[in-house]
Fold this sequence. Notes:
single chain; alpha/beta; Glutaredoxin; six-stranded mixed sheet; 6 strands; globular
Amino acid sequence: MKKLVVFTIAFLLISNLSIGQTIKKVKIIDVLHMADTSSVPVVFNFFASWCRPCVQELPWFEKTVPNYKGKNVNLILVSLDYADDFPKGILAFAKKHNITSQIVWLEEADPNYFCPKIDKRWEGTIPVSLMINNATNFRAFYDYQLPESQLKIALDKLVK
Length: 160
């Protein structure tokens, strides 16, 4: 029995390492705190694994944001997946799509509550992105899919 428990724990640890992810549960207040206190430029991309434009957009973020490492840009992917998908479904999605960026799961059920806290214009559609640079008082909200070319332009503005 002891060997089975040790094996199970080892398997779970190795599984998480191979995926490269642990997904933290957050509330909207936590996301706002991260945005307000970030000392580096930060990009929040709100997505769901079932959202086709989100899935199409994520590789662009994964590919483009690391090019701004010299500017210390931090990418946080905020999953709006259903509670039933936390964490296993989100982890499986991340592994399937080779997502290595930090993912947090927004534990909020009412978009009428959390969307306007991010931006008053947000009507609940996804994907959306919020870019903040507290050092320059830069804040931009994109309530549409950011194609790779537009993402680069947005990131250039973020780090200006």
